[in-house]
Each structure stands twice: as structure tokens, then as C-alpha cells.
């Protein structure tokens, strides 16, 4: 007699549209009834070649190397060459510099440091250091995309800076994704700039990410998308069920940075599901939920999990579109735990033996497909508006033409107000205004840009223009 399904099994299978748990073959990557969105973009030959270079063995080596530093707690020792967060910091910089060395000068690697004065979970002034690699764009370098993981770790007591804190899943797995992306992209020429970031201070309060986001904001950086990879190391839940071909993407609706005037507009048009971050999440589904990544992207319509937070939040708070990748179901015995074996023989602790390095490699492919397509495609259209100066049963959209030299035109997308994804696409041509013979009161519209290579931008959701 087969065992009864657990509640998680039922819920996961339902969310996946009937996808069976276990290890499906490549032919099962698109299960029955799973149709790509109308806005989906098939992977290019260039992208498929890039994805093939992502190496699970290198990812495993990165995770194990980070674990070897004993603890990477933000408050741990910074001047020991073998143990503590300082040793991890120096190794990360060395790795990123080795990738930059083959980039022909396009990639630079650096430390981004500041002294955090006493604050919650930081009892004394502490230097917090992010390790960054920047791959400068060749065509539109002013447009920036950021991908991050946090290299600090913790155990049960968030203030314990001396006990072994392996942090394999949380979050050496995310840092391994970032390093592997930097490695495979270093020798390539993205049109726009990509920043690869290993940040510190996450477990103490998102300090490193907040500093990076603030520095970008102060510099006036045009960050059009940010992704954090946090706890992406395993597809096994705490009850043993497996979902190895799904990754969650948390994407907020109502923007964290929304002003009262922006809130009034959102309420008037019903735009709760159409923030820039939700459009970014739809873009991820368009370009990374396919046979090339062998992954299903399960978009979750909230900023993060209950009682949790991540390094995308400081970016959201500063008005940047940002989202979080996290494994499909967490095992809480293997995160934020002292390394120990209890009286029943159960092993606790965030150890590398509980990571699935093939799964992390597939998560890296989802990130790579997203970032590379974003960097090669046009930027999100600016100035998108729906003209509301007169009451009519048609819809006229206007927008500002982009400055990309390879821009070829625009598309209008639409969907029913109750639909989660765009369902219709109209070729508008190389214009900055377009009229559709449908009422703006009954459907949602958006605008996206197209370049000569056929790559599409994320969708811009229009505000009303009186």
C-alpha cells in the first residue's frame, strides 16, 4: 500500500499544475497543461551556450570553501587568514579578481566597506564589507542590473560570533550562484552593466545590502532590476518531499517606496498587481521558465515569507524593482541552527551534505537566463501613459522612445483585469503612441520595447495621463 500524500505534496502538485514530485526528465520540463505566457521569449543560441557552461562541481567547491572558514558571522574575526568573515571576504575578492582578469578590462572587482555604528544586533562599531564585481555594459552601460547572495552566516543565537556556523544553504548557496554567474559572464559583452554582489550583515539586519542600495541611489544609478538569491541550496522540505525543478520568486505588489500620490493613482486604476517588481517577475517567467533552465519559476505574490526578510528589501525601499529567489520548501533544521545531533539521532545545522548542487546549478541558470536577457534587451519603456483627457471606448497609449541604438520598436500587451499574466501582444512598430479599439476601463495594458535581435524588455504599466 502506497503512503498517503502529505499536505505539502498536495499543495505543491496543485501549484505546479499537476506536476509530479521527484526527478522528471528533460522531456517533462513542460508538464501537461503548462503553457508559456503569451509574452514568453525563447532562449537564443547565445544564451543556451552560456547556460551550458554553468558547472555544478564549481558551485559545490564554492559552497564547501565558504563552509571551511568555520564561521562567517558578521561579528566574527576579520583579520584571521583562515577563520571568520574576514577570511571569507578575502577569498571572495580573490575569486572575483581571477574572473575579472579574463574580461579584457570590462570587469572590475572591489571591496565596498563602511563602519556600522552600534545598532540592533550590532553591539559595537563593526566594519561591514560587501564584495562586488561589476561587468560594464558595452552599449548602454548606464543601465544596471544587480544579483546578490549574502556571505555572512549564523547559528541559533544570532549574536553567537564564535561557534561553527557553516551556512551552506543560508547563504553559501546564493553566493555560489553569484560567483558562477560572474565566472561565465566575465568573458562576454553584455549590452548593459551587471553587478555581482556578495554582501555581509544580512543576518544582523540587511546592513550590507542597505549600504549598497544607498550608494547606488546616491550615485543616481539606473538600477532596473535586482535579484537576491537566499537559501537556494536544496529542493527537499522538512518532511522529505522533493520539488527539484521549482524555484520560488517572491515579488511584492504594492511598492515599499510608494508615495501617497502614487498610492492614489494605483487605487484609481487597480494597479496592485502591476508594480515594476511584478513586471520583473513576469519577465523572469518569460525568459527563464523553459527547457533551457529545466526549471519552473513559481512567482509568489508577496515581498517575502512570513516573519522573514532579505537583501532585496533595501532596494525596494529605495524604489528599485527587486525580488528574491528561494528554494521551493525549506527545512528549518538546516538553517539558523547550532550544529548538533539530538537524542533521536537527528542532525541539525546548515551543513553542505544537505545541499543539492545540481539544484543550485539550475537556480543559477534561471538567474543567468534572466540577467543576460535583461542586459541584452532594451530597457523598460519610460513615460508610459494612457490618455484619459476624453471619455472614449478606445485606448490611446503614449510613451517616450528609448535611446538604445539597436531599438527597433514597441509592443502593446494586454490582459483581463483578473488574469495574472499578459495574454495578448500587438506589434505597434517604431512609434511612441498607439490606439487600441478596446476600452481602457475593461482590461489592463502595458508597453514593452523590442530590439533588432528580437529581444523584449520588461513591460511598463502605464499611469493615466489627463
Overall spatial form: globular
Provide the structure class. Answer: alpha/beta
CATH architecture of the largest domain: 3-Layer(aba) Sandwich
Main β-sheet, in a few words?
8 strands, mixed
| SSE pattern, N- to C-terminal | HHHHEEEHEHHEEHHEHEEEHEEEEEEE
The CATH superfamily name of the largest domain is Zn peptidases
Q: Identify the CATH class of the largest domain.
A: Alpha Beta
Quaternary status: single chain
Low-confidence stretches: 1-33
Number of domains: 2
Computed CA radius of gyration, to the nearest angstrom: 22 Å
Cα-to-Cα separation, first versus last residue: 66 Å
Strands of the biggest beta sheet: in what spatial order?
A: 1-2-4-3-5-8-6-7
Number of strands: 17
CATH topology of the largest domain: Aminopeptidase
Q: Assign a percent range to the helix content.
A: 25-40%
Explain what the structure shows.
The chain contains 11 helices and 17 strands. With 466 residues, the chain is of the alpha/beta class. The longest helix has 20 residues, at 357-376. The radius of gyration is 22 Å and the shape is globular. It starts with 6 loop residues before the first helix and ends with a strand. The model is unreliable at 1-33 (pLDDT under 50). This is Peptidase M28. GO terms for molecular function: hydrolase activity, acting on glycosyl bonds; metalloexopeptidase activity. Residues 14-32 have a biased composition (Low complexity). Residues 14-43 are annotated as: Disordered.
Amino acid at each position: 500500500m502506497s503512503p498517503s500524500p502529505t499536505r505539502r505534496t498536495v499543495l505543491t502538485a496543485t501549484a505546479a499544475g499537476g506536476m509530479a514530485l521527484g526527478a522528471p526528465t528533460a522531456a517533462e520540463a513542460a508538464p501537461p497543461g503548462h503553457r508559456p505566457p503569451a509574452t514568453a521569449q525563447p532562449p537564443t543560441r547565445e544564451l543556451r551556450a552560456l547556460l551550458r557552461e554553468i558547472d555544478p562541481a564549481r558551485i559545490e567547491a564554492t559552497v564547501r570553501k565558504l563552509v571551511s572558514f568555520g564561521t562567517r558571522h558578521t561579528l566574527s574575526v576579520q583579520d584571521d587568514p583562515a577563520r571568520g568573515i574576514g577570511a571569507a571576504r578575502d577569498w571572495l575578492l580573490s575569486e572575483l579578481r581571477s574572473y575579472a582578469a579574463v574580461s579584457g578590462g570590462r570587469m572590475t572587482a572591489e571591496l565596498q566597506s563602511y563602519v556600522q555604528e552600534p545598532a540592533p544586533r550590532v553591539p559595537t562599531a563593526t566594519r561591514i564589507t560587501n564584495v562586488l564585481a561589476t561587468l560594464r555594459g558595452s552599449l548602454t552601460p548606464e543601465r544596471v542590473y544587480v544579483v546578490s547572495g549574502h556571505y555572512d552566516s549564523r547559528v541559533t543565537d544570532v549574536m553567537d560570533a564564535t561557534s561553527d556556523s557553516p551556512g551552506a544553504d543560508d547563504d553559501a548557496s546564493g553566493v555560489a550562484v553569484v560567483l558562477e554567474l560572474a565566472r561565465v559572464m566575465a568573458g562576454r559583452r553584455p549590452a548593459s552593466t551587471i553587478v555581482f554582489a556578495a554582501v555581509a550583515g544580512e543576518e544582523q539586519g540587511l546592513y550590507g545590502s542597505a549600504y549598497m542600495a544607498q550608494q547606488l541611489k546616491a550615485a543616481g544609478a539606473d538600477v532596473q532590476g535586482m535579484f537576491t538569491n537566499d537559501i537556494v541550496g536544496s529542493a527537499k522540505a522538512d518532511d522529505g518531499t522533493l520539488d527539484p525543478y521549482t524555484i520560488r520568486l517572491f515579488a511584492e505588489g504594492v511598492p515599499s517606496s510608494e508615495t501617497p500620490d502614487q498610492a492614489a493613482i494605483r487605487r484609481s486604476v487597480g494597479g496592485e498587481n502591476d508594480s515594476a517588481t511584478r513586471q520583473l517577475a513576469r519577465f523572469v517567467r518569460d525568459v527563464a521558465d523553459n527547457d533551457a533552465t529545466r526549471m519552473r519559476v513559481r512567482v509568489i505574490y508577496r515581498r517575502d515569507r512570513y516573519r522573514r526578510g532579505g537583501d532585496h528589501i533595501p532596494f525596494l525601499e529605495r524604489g528599485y524593482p527587486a525580488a528574491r529567489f528561494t528554494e521551493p520548501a525549506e527545512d528549518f533544521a538546516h538553517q539558523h541552527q547550532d550544529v548538533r545531533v539530538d537524542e533521536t539521532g537527528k542532525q541539525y545545522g546548515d551543513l553542505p551534505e544537505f545541499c543539492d548542487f545540481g539544484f543550485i546549478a539550475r537556480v543559477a541558470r534561471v538567474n543567468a537566463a534572466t540577467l543576460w536577457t535583461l542586459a541584452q534587451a532594451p530597457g523598460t519603456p519610460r513615460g508610459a501613459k494612457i490618455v484619459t483627457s476624453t471619455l472614449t471606448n478606445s485606448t490611446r497609449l503614449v510613451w517616450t522612445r528609448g535611446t538604445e541604438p539597436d531599438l527597433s520598436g514597441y509592443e502593446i500587451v494586454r490582459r483581463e483585469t483578473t488574469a495574472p499574466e499578459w495574454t495578448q501582444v500587438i506589434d505597434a512598430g517604431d512609434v511612441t503612441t498607439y490606439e487600441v479599439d478596446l476600452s481602457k476601463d475593461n482590461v489592463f495594458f502595458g508597453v514593452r520595447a523590442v530590439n533588432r535581435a528580437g529581444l523584449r524588455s520588461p513591460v511598463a504599466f502605464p499611469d493615466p495621463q489627463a
